[in-house]
TrEMBL record:
Pfam families recorded: Peripla_BP_2 (PF01497)
Family the entry assigns: Belongs to the bacterial solute-binding protein 8 family.
Assigned keywords, A-Z: Signal, Transport
Gene3D superfamilies: Nitrogenase molybdenum iron protein domain
InterPro entries: ABC_transptr_periplasmic_BD (IPR002491), Bact_iron-sidero_bind (IPR051313)
Protein name as annotated: Iron-siderophore ABC transporter substrate-binding protein
Amino acid sequence: MLANSSRRGPGRARSRGISALVALSTVATLGLTACGDSDTTLRTPDGEVISTVTSRIAGVNIVNADRDYAKTCLAPTATDPGRSDTSRVIVTDPSLLDAFCALGIGNKVRAVTAAPGSIPAYLGPELGAVPTIGDDPTADAVRAADPQLVLGTPSTAAELSALRKTGALGDARIATVQPGKDWRSLFTAVADAMNRSAAATERLGEFDAEVKRIGTVMDAAHSQVSLVRFTPDDELLEGTDSFGASILAEVGVQRPAGQRGADPVVVTDANFTEADADLIYVSAEGEAGMNRATSVLDSDRWKEMGAPSWQRVLWINDDVWYRSSGLAAAWLVLNDIKSSLNSSSAGE
C-alpha cells in the first residue's frame, strides 16, 4: 500500500486540534474541566479560555486555518419589487441552507427536518443554531417553528409527508425546488421561492466578476494544481466533477493530465507521481483519512516529488471543497484559492 511506503515515522496527528479540523472547526480549545492545581486550561488574566489554531498538519500549512465561519453568510437581500416576503421557513433538505446563507436570509429558517449535526459547520453559528427537528417531527416542534413556507426537494418527500401528518402546518405554503444540474440552478431556485430572483442574479454576477478578476490577477492559466484526497479506503486523484475542482476550473487553473477526467482516480504504485503539479492541495475525510494522509505525506516517495520538495503542498478543508456546494461555499473555496495559489508551506 502507498500509505506504508518508506515511512519516516508514524506521522499521525492525534491532537484535539486536528480532530476539530476534520469536523470543520479549526479552532481547538485546549481547556480541561479539572479544577485547582490540576487545571491545565490556558486562560487570560481575567479567566477567559485561550484558544489556539492548528495551522499545520504533517508539516503542511492549512489554508485559512483561522477562518471565522460567523462571516460566511452574506449581507441580507431584499425581495423582488412588488413581491411579498416570507419570515418563517421550515427546510426539509439541508442542501438548501447554503442558498439562504448566500442570500443573507438565514434568520428566516426556523427549523430543518434533519438529524442533529446535519447542518454544515461552514454555514456558521446562525444557521447552526436552527432547530433540527428530525425526519419525523412532533406537532409541538412544527408549531414552535410556525412556518409560513415549507421548502424542500423531491428527495425529501418523506420528510414533507411527516410534516403534513403532524397536522400543525396550518396555512403554510409548501414548495419544492428542483436541484438542477449544478449548484447555481439550486441557488436560483431557492431565491425564486423566496422572491429574490433579482438578488440572486446580482449575487452570482458579483461572484463571477471576482472569479474572472482573480484568474487574471493570479495568472491562473499558468498554474497547474493537483487535488489529492485521502479517504478511509483510498488515496484519490480528484477529477473535475467535484465542487472545489469546478471552482478551480472557473478561475482558470490548470490540472495535471491524470486529473482531467470527471471522476476521481485511485492512486496506485503505477500512477503515484500523477499527484505532482506546481501546487498540491491535500485534504482528508475523517480520522481514518487523516491517518492515511499523514502516513503518505511522511513517506520518502511523496517527499521526493516536485511540489513536496518545493514545499508547495497545502491543506484544504475537505468538507467545504468536496462535501458542500452553493454560492456561500463557492466564496470560501475562491477565498482559499486567492490566499494560497501562490503560497507554500515553508516555515512554521
